[in-house]
Amino acid sequence: MDELRPVTTICYYDLGGKLHQMACKVTTVPFRGTKEQEEKLLAVIAELRDTPGALMPIMQRAQDIYGYLPIEVQTIIADQMNVPLEKIYGIATFYAQFALAPKGEYRISVCLGTACYVKGSQPVYDKISELLGIKEGECTPDGKFSLESCRCVGACGLAPVMMINDDVYGRLVPDMIPDILKKYE
Amino acid sequence: MHNISIQELEAIRDKMAPHINFRHEEMIGKMDDNYRIHVCVCGGTGCTSSGSETLIKVLNEELEKNGLTDQVQIVKTGCFGLCALGPIMIVHPEGSFYSRVTPEMIPEIVKEHLVGGKPVTKYLYKETVTENGTIGYDQTHFYAKQNRVALRNCGRISPEKIDEYIGTNGYFALKKVLTEMKPEDVIQVLLDSGLRGRGGAGFPTGLKWKFARAYDNDQKYVCCNADEGDPGAFMDRSVLEGDPHVVLEAMTIAGYTIGASQGYIYVRAEYPIAVKRLQIAIEQAHEYGLLGDNILGTGFKFDIGLRLGAGAFVCGEETALMTSIEGNRGEPRPRPPFPAEKGLFQKPSILNNVETWANIPQIILKGAAWFASMGTEKSKGTKVFALGGKINNTGLVEIPMGTTLREVIEEIGGGIPNGKKFKAAQTGGPSGGCIPAEHFDVPIDYDNLIAIGSMMGSGGLIVMDEDNCMVDIAKFFLQFTVDESCGKCTPCRIGTKRLLEMLERITKGQGKLEDLDKMEELCYYIKANALCGLGQTAPNPVLSTLRYFRDEYIAHVVDKRCPAGVCKDLLKFVVDKEKCVGCGLCMRNCPAGAITRTEYVAPGHKLASVEIDPDKCVKCGVCMGNCKFKAISKQ
Ligand SMILES: Cc1cc2nc3c(=O)[nH]c(=O)nc-3n(C[C@H](O)[C@H](O)[C@H](O)COP(=O)(O)O)c2cc1C
Ligand code: FES
Questions:
Q1: Interior CA angle at A125 toward A122 and A127, to 5°?
Q2: pTM of structure
């Protein structure tokens, strides 16, 4: 499991013919990007590079393509856009939606928005964490489940709410969790 | 498609208006098709989550089976507001309000109601059924006091059809502005209307536009704040999902007024349905030439781009939002210069909230006086609130400014579930505060809420009952701001962290009395010194709970007790030995093996009672939940 946690290392990148270095957090999961994925990404960059404020949309589309934004993908974007890797990395780590490590096959996301919190979503979250043995942002060793909290999915009428990929579960109590997780095993 | 002309716009409206009115008041005009029944199914996020897509599928199949497809029209609308009873389905012309509809109910409803003409009373929203027959849902407690201005089309039209929007007089405010009004006139109308921003701060919208218009520049920008960061609030999302064109129309009006040709909508990425509907709306507006060059043949040009946020609360702040649209880390900038002078890409810009935009076309069409006739002296119009938490009717409500909290919670909201006692209402999200019962009768408006230590915010209204611990709630919001602080300024980055640590100590029973004063002092320091609104308002949840619920803090600090029974470290589960019959169920189910049998047999019982070892207890509460004799309680 430890190998799924990001580790800090030094990355090198080339900008304007000069080698630069930067300390950054990377995942130890080997990068398995394919040729097709890279071609798709290059096409996206070609399409968007001249729109004002292109970096964020490019990174969002890149995450759609790869499922996460490993340093390898960040490097492609930095090279293509001719900006320092620091800048891409800075954006990737600023926004909660960019993931540096891959997510599970089933992404569990428990709402800790106010409406859900006052109705007891924290105990629901704790129960999942306990059952799967993972914490915020982590993934089970078999790559099956990952756990994260989110802020209001807009279904406050069903509070407390969680989502597993696109399935929404509402009016939860901790005792319902084992049966729900079983559906995905 | 070519750019439609004003005559063509009028033709579409005249054709569509009867269809829309059919779902509303008495019929006006004649429809050009044979649909005698309209079934409106909510396609908002709340109802979609509780299964409305499946309903539409089953409904279609049943209509097919019964040969009704050319008589009954299914309309997938935006949010009706009463999310607690979703999925919701309304059948017109009767306006029958079906609640918590399941696929199994559909065949019966189709057979009895759509074919037979008799509403299936047992599936109707209970409040609409009286001894003397059914009443319109607009007469129920939830709807009677509401006045839908910003939400007027939510639940009434299909958000994915521009013609339906035009049928509600949509794009006619734009037509009026482009053909009859000068930019100064528009600003004057907004100023006269008294419209203030619905995104939180309540700045007069007309004034904001006036400033931006005054700066000369070849390029200006109009931005829409659809970042809706307050967790537990979903007003803006419902407008975008239910009536996306109103935002496009209003932004175009602003473009004409301040002299901009480009707009951006910055929308939370967590809102996939809203994003999709906006994309469709922008595409359709382009097809009709209501966006692009030469709008309605007037020579005016305006376009709108969509930008997705990526999960950073601070990006709701205006300068941070603009930095984010520019493609950077969304860190705020010091003001001045204000965005009206140097905003997006360093050009004069305005930013308004979704709900603010949704009010504007109506103000243009109906006039400033109409709008100013609603509300209080300094807060005009209506406000949408997302009612949530411990309240029966969770959902979206739009009320005139000046309505009291009592009316919202007791009448519209239907009170607190399970006979529990009201403790506080939280407004303004992480920037706001908690309002106790003693202020139940204060009319809700911008200034009153600030006076009682909270704020309007964007419209989240979360109700808490006696089971919620106010120290824990303050900690919850502080945790949120610590996570979301962008780190640029020290008071916010470090100050909020220290504040959170103090709260954590208190909830663990390690707090001291002087900590409370220290906390207050730190709060005022952060408020005075933080760079942006995030830090300046972050201490509010702490200050307001300290102000109204100091006794709860003191219970944590002095008595080492959490009166609401939430803070785990202060909890103790105890067995009432007189009530315990010694069945042993709790012993078998305790995950920590913390329960053992004593030697005491209570009078009238056969078996010895049990006791809980506080050192082993993990405070999961399983024993208490399982005990049929109510012999275990938490203290
Ligand atoms: C930390 C922070 C978060 C904010 N989040 C939002 C938000 O999610 N939505 C919003 O409309 N305004 C938000 N605002 C307010 C905006 O800065 C700005 O005042 C508003 O969008 C202006 O529009 P209005 O005048 O129409 O209200 C936020 C402000 C701060 C300081
Ligand atoms: S707070 Fe959880 S869905 Fe809104």
A1: 110
A2: 0.92
B453 found inside a domain: yes
Same domain, B302 and B360: yes
Place of tokens 């960040």: A74
Q: How is the beta sheet containing B89-92 ordered, strand by strand?
A: B72-77, B37-42, B89-92, B96-98
| C-alpha to C-alpha distance for B419 and B408, rounded to whole angstroms | 17
Only one residue has tokens 């473009």, namely B255
- Cα–ligand 1 centroid distance for A119 (angstroms): 26
Q: Answer positive or negative: Cα dihedral of B546, B547, B551, B552.
A: negative
**B230 vs B226: CA distance, rounded Å:** 11
User: Could you give the 3-state DSSP secondary structure of residue B350?
Assistant: strand
B543, two tokens: 């200050």
DSSP-derived letter for residue B420 is P
Mutate to test the pocket of ligand 1, among B317, B322, B355, B482 (most ligand atoms within 8 A of CB): B317
Q: Say how many domains are in chain A.
A: 2
Residue type, B455: M
Q: Is the peptide bond before A52 cis (omega within 30 degrees of 0)?
A: no
Its sign, for the CA torsion B215, B221, B225, B227, is negative
> CB–CB of B472/B306 below 8 Å?
no
A59 and A110 in a single domain? The answer is no
A170 contacts B86? CB cut-off 8 A: no
- Residues of A with CB below 8 A from B83's CB? 155-158
Whose CA is closest to B435, among B419, B447, B421, B451?
B451
The DSSP H or E segment spanning B223 is: strand B221-226
Q: Provide the residue range defining the domain that includes B536.
A: 470-557
Least confidently predicted of A26-35, B58-67, B163-172, B591-600: A26-35
Same domain, B31 and B91: yes
**Rounded distance, CA B343 to CA B335, Å?**
10
Distance CA B4, CA B248 (A): 16
- The CA-atom distances, in angstroms, between B11 and each of B6, B7, B18, B165, B540 are 9, 6, 12, 13, 52
* Residue B454 near residue B433 (C-beta atoms within 8 A): yes
Question: Which is more confidently placed, B363 or B268?
Answer: B363
Complete DSSP assignment for B73-103: EEEEE---S-GGG-S-EEEETTTEEE-S--G
Cβ(B428) – ligand 1 distance below 6 Å = no
d(CA B564, CA B545): 14
Nearest alpha carbon to residue B84 among A9, A182, A115: A115
The residue range of the domain holding A171 is 106-182
Evaluate whether residue A168 is within a structural domain: yes
Residue B362 structure tokens:
């109506």
Write out pLDDT tens, residues A8-19: 888 888 887 888
Beta carbons of B234 and A152 less than 8 Å apart: yes
CA distance B181 to chain A (A): 32
Q: Strands (DSSP E) along B501-547, which ranges? A: none
Q: Which of A67-81, B128-142, B207-221 has the lowest mean pLDDT?
A: B128-142
In this structure, are B193 and B308 located in the same domain? yes
Task: Count how many residues are written for chain A.
Answer: 185
